[in-house]
Amino acid sequence: MATVSKPDTQTEFKLGLYRQMVRLRALEQRLTKLSRDGQLRGSLHLATGQEAVPAGACAALRKDDTFTVTYRGHGYILAKGVDLNLVVAEILGRATGLNKGKGGKMHLTDPSYGLLGANGIVGGGVGTAVGGALASWMDNSDRVSMTVFGDGTLNQGHTHEALNMAALWNLPMIFLCENNLYAEMTPLSRSTKVTDLTQKMAAYGIEAVSVDGNDPLAVYEVMRKAVEKGRKGKGPTFIEAMTYRTCGHYQNDPGTQYRTPAEIAEWEAQAPIARFEKHLGAKLAAELAQINAEEIKVVDAAVDAALAAPAPSIDDLQKDMFV
Amino acid sequence: MATVSKPDTQTEFKLGLYRQMVRLRALEQRLTKLSRDGQLRGSLHLATGQEAVPAGACAALRKDDTFTVTYRGHGYILAKGVDLNLVVAEILGRATGLNKGKGGKMHLTDPSYGLLGANGIVGGGVGTAVGGALASWMDNSDRVSMTVFGDGTLNQGHTHEALNMAALWNLPMIFLCENNLYAEMTPLSRSTKVTDLTQKMAAYGIEAVSVDGNDPLAVYEVMRKAVEKGRKGKGPTFIEAMTYRTCGHYQNDPGTQYRTPAEIAEWEAQAPIARFEKHLGAKLAAELAQINAEEIKVVDAAVDAALAAPAPSIDDLQKDMFV
Amino acid sequence: MSTVATETRTIGYTAAISEALHQEMARDSNVFVIGEDIGHFGGMFRATEGLLEAFGEKRVIDTPISESGFIGIALGAAMAGKRPVVELMFFDFALVAMDQILNQVAKAQYMTGGMAKVPLVIRTQGGGYKGAAAQHSQMLEALFLHVPGLKVVCPATPADAKGLVAGAIRDNNPVLVVEHKQLYGMKGEVPEGEHVLPLGKAYVRREGTDLTIFTYSYTLHLALQAAEELAASGISAEVVDLQSLNPLDWSTIQASVTKTHRVLIAHESPGRCGVGADLIAQIQERMFDELDAPILRVTGGDIPVPFAQNLEEASLPSVSRIVAQAKACLE
Amino acid sequence: MSTVATETRTIGYTAAISEALHQEMARDSNVFVIGEDIGHFGGMFRATEGLLEAFGEKRVIDTPISESGFIGIALGAAMAGKRPVVELMFFDFALVAMDQILNQVAKAQYMTGGMAKVPLVIRTQGGGYKGAAAQHSQMLEALFLHVPGLKVVCPATPADAKGLVAGAIRDNNPVLVVEHKQLYGMKGEVPEGEHVLPLGKAYVRREGTDLTIFTYSYTLHLALQAAEELAASGISAEVVDLQSLNPLDWSTIQASVTKTHRVLIAHESPGRCGVGADLIAQIQERMFDELDAPILRVTGGDIPVPFAQNLEEASLPSVSRIVAQAKACLE
Ligand SMILES: Cc1ncc(C[n+]2csc(CCOP(=O)(O)OP(=O)(O)O)c2C)c(N)n1
Ligand SMILES: Cc1ncc(C[n+]2csc(CCOP(=O)(O)OP(=O)(O)O)c2C)c(N)n1
Ligand SMILES: [Mg+2]
Ligand SMILES: [Mg+2]
Questions:
Q1: Which of B200, B303, C142, C213 could form a disulfide with D273 if both were Cys (CB 3.0 to 4.6 A apart)?
Q2: Beta-bridge partner residues of D151
Q3: Widest CA span of chain D, in angstroms?
């Protein structure tokens, strides 16, 4: 595990990271059940095995920093502070949802927490996040902006356009790439020749750093530096977080057709939550157990509240197109 | 001037390059007049000052090699062997044109010479050329494919997608980038931070070489190597040909609002035709004069024939949509 | 066009497509498939299952997530003599490749005066009803009818899927085949042998006399159910599966309008500048005097497809909406 | 909406746009412009002349050739509180940015239940008649009407250009402003001071009683000439400038149809799934009984815009085609 430069409150800070990770895990477990039971519509893209990246990354951000994520980005959304109850209600398509049930899980959006949108289109939100950075620059603000995407997203042209402009204009941007080695069922080596993704940044002159994405402290550290640099007006950073989804691409993919059992097992042995528990040590076992229990409760409460909440009103069908 | 490895017939080969350059120049001069006189419709994008790149590049290609170019690509089209009369008639919108007057200068296309199309969209033909390379690979052929584009085209996402796939699949591709330092009125330094374009190829693992684009022999040499490599199945090459359009971006742009007189003068002193004449030396003066005279005559004949040719028949308006 | 079918059996819609691909790739070595996760994985929806094993990696190309890039590549390969069949995983993703589809592929033949030959097929699947939300539920066929240059077909049954995919591959023009995610689970009788349907034909799927419902794709099945319900109310609805949106089969359309004099059009994509509007304009231009009433429509809403089930259902065609509008046609 | 105009003077269409941009940027420091060659160069068509000098490099952003990228960036800036005005050099280039425009910008407000606010303007210019060929001559407005989420306006005169650009900037929704290359050379009376037009209004540009010609953009001027010629033949044509294609001004449309009972629609974009088809569908749905004859259309051809002058002219609306179809409406 990386050491962390957060001055005091070391343990408290770490327990906060841990809480985010288990909240994400608890949520995913509950959502999986809901999906199996037919209570959750649509695709469910989980981040099991990748919990350390959102926890570490968002710990380095302020509420007013902007960011965009993908269909797999609910962990970031929660870790950034967006209300769990609103998020869950949205995922379940309720009137009480963050987006009134109109967007669902793929389109969670809450600018009051800087969340400029999850996205269903690969690369679709990369430019949006750079727009947040542009606004910060225009405002002479020290806000930074982050976009999170996967390894496969570097093959989408839009991503390159956005990278180039962020570098050209020296914007306070963090490109956080979760390299989980697969884009859907396609291994990285079948989608690009240059599989060290940091090398790709030579095209833009963007500082690039690779990090152990299964270590929340390591992620936090590189993010903290990138954020600090951005706040000082020193331009964008690309972070490649090496990680792995131990689950499938989405709820109907066991993830085993295109990956060997050995590979999956190897990464499961590195899964961030258990690994971080080991790092935190036996002396904190009671705290960890409590956090787990609390988070399961919080998630259950959010789900139960959402299930009890009304569906959107049909009268609102046409609303929200234009203001 | 670079030395050339073409075995014998050195002089003859060089005179061939010279002929292509002056043909291009003669054509552009005549087209400029036609445009001023209102006899040529639409935009006219000239390659004045860039004549060495098409001459050198196409000398390394075979008739069956595929290629795509841009709105500025008529020099390549001629140098590749497409019939001048057909090209001119198309540029003038005649029934006798290469594309029956339906496409005009921006859409010149003749697959029988491997020409998979000029293009009006920046980057629009890059993928098309890679498709030619894919077909060659599928056919187990030694055909190569080339796409020509400008420095500004590296900022268009589509270009990156095509580069990545050409590298991934190790296709017989040549990406020939005419770096003329400007995209329309935008200097390279205002469109990307990494102005050494060869560096961008680190993102794809594509061999990249920069060459004096105002020296047809130097261009020919790097092309020859890239073509040979492609024919042997050894993958794509990126060539950055450093050059400059001493004219404006198109017929209504004097090219002086965004470039200093000193810069233009400096490049005019390096203009490829005069420079190559110097290289060829006084002893060939008579031959050069004759070639000039011949090419002016050939171009004039083509233009006169086109002007005398009929407009397309209105009866053909709906034809050629579907076969 | 040919159906050399010894007999039929019941198979699924995607299996039928897969059969067509196997059949056409075996017939013509210039045919190849290209797209995301279609080779090693066999396709997100299994339509390309077994192709890699059968035809090898030179004819079954797995791509990165680069739709604009690989559609451009398919175009170049087509111009160089191949017959590419692109799989675009969701219709919604066409929007990242619109320049390639509409400025390049669709225009190439015409603007080159026929010098370019573009025998290129794009297969994709669209449509809602599954809670896939605004960016994974669209039917965008109207965009590809408005900008000229593509043939567009929408198979509504497994047999049609097999026949139209084969027909599209044999056609020498660029063809967009629009499948529907709701149909992927559908089973039906499909000819076993070679089965190739012509492009440009509409079919009367149910005869009727009081009004005609023109429809296509998944909505056809809603319309057929609606016709059943209408029959129970004593209304005889003819249901025509347009199937080919470009070209349209005017003789079938005209025959039905001339017979019923009342028309309803049902489709899932939005109404504004949609297929229904297009048909209305042309029908009233061609046979105004045949119409006894305004032509009505049931279309998807003029809003992004909402996520919540009740909103999504309210925004898309349903049997009850079709029944109600059919009755309105008769008022 | 306001016109605080001391007086008018004759200026060009692009100068009028430039005035609107200056005016709105001076009024609201959140407004900024972004696009290719708009700053240091002043815009390919001069509409952004002087803005860089007046407002500095934080509000006048020259971009690389990355339309998809900078429209995405504009969206993000809008959601972060800015009011971007994008210049898209040619309408045709929208096709490289369709995901950003139609999947992101157009859907953001609705699919977030109003959480996203997207006060974003895209200005572009389309249209033919200039020998710019298939990829530089398109009018693509129908695509942006079909996929819901954008307001779309088409100013046909310098005064409207000023007023609608200002109106679009003040509107809190994403707005597409479609200019026309043939209008860039046009001069007209334009209010000197603040001039802001509402979005969503159509205008009767010439009163008439025998038929109504609905049109917009450059085609308006052809229609007005046609009306002049028709008057010489004793036919009184009313000409309505739709101006706003979304939302449509139904009260103006309805009033005119109810008055003339015969309708012709003229626009430059292709017919299939086009604006004319859309209007026909809605008019006959809303007021079938008011129509004495089929609604006819004069549209661009269902082909890519050809290069040769005679072909291009034959494929696009002309005064004579409008006159002929207007007469056909009266038969
Ligand atoms: C433009 C586009 N093409 C294809 C898809 C289908 N798709 C959804 S997720 C995905 C894989 C993305 O891989 P990566 O960027 O590595 O992210 P990961 O899912 O691994 O987190 C694909 C191809 C899409 N949503 N958008
Ligand atoms: C997608 C797209 N955006 C913008 C344009 C307008 N445009 C035409 S040429 C050009 C500059 C291209 O620069 P570069 O690639 O360097 O080629 P050069 O013209 O210098 O040869 C631009 C922006 C276009 N044709 N297509
Ligand atoms: Mg991945
Ligand atoms: Mg250039």
A1: C142
A2: D175
A3: 60
